[in-house]
Amino acid sequence: MLKIENLSATVGEPDAAKTIINGLSLEVPAGEVHAIMGPNGAGKSTLSYVLTGREGYEVTGGSATLDGQDILALDPEDRASAGLFLSFQYPIEIPGVPVMTFVRTAMNAQRKARGEPEISAPDYLKKSRDVAKMLNLDADMLKRPVNVGFSGGEKKRLEIYQMLMLEPRFMVLDETDSGLDIDALRTVAEGVNALRAPERGMLVITHYQRLLDYIKPDKVHVLAKGRIIKSGGPELALRLEKEGYDGVLAEAV
């Protein structure tokens, strides 16, 4: 599904660009959830930005495909239409744009790009109510401007609301657990797990094992200095939680 081969990328002005992703290779088949863990500055968030096309990041080598399609050649909105979704570590505020207007507009833009009919207002409202109920989102929150005045936990739940409404084919979750208390973490994880399916894939970026107690990964990868240095099963995350990164980093030298 998602295949990354020898990917390298820089950030910053051309005359002072810094290499953050450095020969990274990774494959996430359809139906699987993979977790990426690593120390601060390893390149975890940068990887998510490069995949989704954030400005300021330049790919200098390698490739990334989604079901064989070169996503690096696409504009960010076309990557989204192809089914790629990013849940931000720090969701931005969009003053003046109500949540429901924003999400319905995004849904219909993606449907149009895929040659599908727009979702009707009744169908949208029904789906929105069902998703909001699952995530314990108050209906009034969906009438407010996107993320304006929201707590950290509310912003993260709203990210998952958008994901459930859009139903992407591949999801990148960038530290979705940061800033969540235990109840909000459980609620967010339930929303994420509701989208697990044989035709979908997921990449979960996190510092901590606690998120992986709720979103069970098929594989865990350790990212350091811009590349994957070790991969394993869920037990690898437990080892990192117990021992830290020093042992794994030493093994990769």
UniProtKB/TrEMBL annotation:
ABC transporter domain segment(s): 2-250
Record's keyword annotation contains ATP-binding: yes
InterPro entries, per the entry: AAA+_ATPase, ABC_transporter-like_ATP-bd, FeS-cluster_ATPase_SufC, P-loop_NTPase
Keyword ATP-binding: yes
GO molecular function: ATP binding; ATP hydrolysis activity
Any single Pfam family the record assigns to this protein: ABC_tran
Keyword field: ATP-binding, Nucleotide-binding
CDD domains according to UniProt: ABC_FeS_Assembly
UniProt-listed PANTHER family: ABC TRANSPORTER I FAMILY MEMBER 6, CHLOROPLASTIC (PTHR43204:SF1)
Recorded family membership: Belongs to the ABC transporter superfamily. Ycf16 family.
Name of protein: FeS assembly ATPase SufC
The species this protein was found in: Hyphomonas hirschiana VP5
